[in-house]
Amino acid sequence: QVQLVESGGGLVQAGGSLRLSCAASGRTFSSNAMGWFRQAPGKEREFVAAISRSGGSTYYADSVKGRFTISRDNAKNTVYLQMNSLKSEDTAVYYCAVRTSEIITEQRGYNYWGQGTQVTVSS
Asked: Are 49 and 68 in contact (CB under 8 A)?
């Protein structure tokens, strides 16, 4: 069992940057592969980025590749999502989750979701 709390969301102008944090507690954080998803109004929750247990492997949705970077600091029990060159279409609630299977890019591969943090990009 692990508990996740996202933070760092807010309002930013198009072209700006934000860094999201996901703080974990409970079982050993270093044992968990992690991911970020987002959900815009009226849309399904979609995959954004994922990172392996050690941080050595990362995965990105085509829509954010080259703009977003996922990272983790196991000593701080925290995973990050650095978001640069933000666009209006990045506006969504962003969720952190624990990966519990070999499925990397779909919701069904994850469990123990956080409460979400709102990111709003104005143009």
From this structure: yes
Contact 11, 122 (CB under 8 A): yes
d(CA 119, CA 114): 15
Structure confidence by residue, pLDDT tens digits, 14-50 = 999 999 999 998 776 677 899 999 999 999 999 999 9
Confidence tier at 62 by pLDDT (50, 70, 90): very high
pLDDT above 90: residue 2: no
Average the pLDDT over 95-108 and give the result. Answer: 95
Asked whether 91 and 97 are in contact (CB, 8 A), the reply is no
What is the per-residue burial (b if ≥16 Cβ within 10 Å, else e) of 16-45? eebebbbbbeeeebeebbbbbbbeeeeeeb
